[in-house]
Amino acid sequence: MKRKTEAILITLALMAVTAAGTLYNHTSFVKEKVDLDDHMVDVNGVFNKKAGLRETFKDNGGVILKNGYIAGVYPETSTDYEYKQIKKLKKFLDRNGVDLMYVNKPTKYTDDKVIAEDLGLESYTNRNADHFLSRIRKAGIPSLDLRDKLNKKDSFSYFYRTDHHWTVPAGKEGADAIASELETVFGYEIDHSISDKKNFKYKKYKNAWLGEQGKKMGRTYVGLDDFTLVTPRFDTSFTVSKRGKTGKTGPFSKVLVNKKAIRKTFAKKDSTEVYHGSSLHYSYNGNKGRIINNGSCCEKKVLVIGDSYDTVTNAFLALYFRQVDSIIMRTFKKDLHEFILKNQYDTVIVSYAQFMIGAHDKKDSANRMMFSFQ
Predict the structure, then answer these.
(1) Closest C-alpha to 109, from 355, 371, 368, 366
(2) Four-residue CA torsion sign, 44, 49, 53, 59
(3) pLDDT tens-digit profile of 267-283?
(4) Sheet order of strands, 290-293 included
């Protein structure tokens, strides 16, 4: 009888934790207005892990796979909106002698079967990308699928476990592939020594931070993530500025590495304040506005219409070209066509993580207007 009573009490306690965790997981009001501190996230993480609950945040952050990575699950889309918009952009750029390239940045898994085999769920992100890329290639729009540049047997290693962004080394590899493709397709002159890993320093920090997805699931479930800082060994000089403001000039490690974000994150990693630390995918200043390479051998001016992945990617892409500007359509308020003509770009790169394909289908998505190029 005593054991039965203890079992009932334990069950009731777990139910209480589950209820509190559910409120925390799904009600922003509770998180903001009620005194549920970071310890509650830790407690919730312990329970979810013990109970084997891996789909709690399926619609708001992702699922936890058996390999420990958090991954998104994405619905099927027709790609019709995206296809029409990029065709219109291509027509405008052709009229004005500006090159266009579409770059597809992958998710953590390059085969949708990964999700089906692990959790029995259907995700369409790779099939959506395949369909969209096939359509634009038939329409004569140059494209680069970065899934082809990754080791498909270990695509997860290009990403953080607790965050949906790719790592710094992955962002550099992406930039190298983009520069090489621009040389192949448009004949741009690039310095191939920039892609050589021997010319860069790689400094790895173990258990350094908790990603955006991990902050929802709890570090007690997913643990902390590693971080690798990559900087050139050779001399560089860049001027980085937000449009309309005086830019800062200095070497790559001074003006393109966001040391403030790194310091804030590392300072918090040993306490529950890890939930409020800076996100280390913002450890570079690649999409602050404009990057001028004061020592580039290639005089091309490039505009990247991208996303938060390009915080890292554009920093390394700027090693190749005279000027790399960046905008994100969800926050861009100007007339895009006028902006392109005014700045006299040689190239426009639309560079998107592939889950942007289909975001327009969801009215409340923050990424709904990413393909609105009018």
Answers:
(1) 355
(2) positive
(3) 666 667 788 877 898 99
(4) 143-145, 99-105, 347-353, 301-305, 323-327, 290-293, 238-241, 248-250
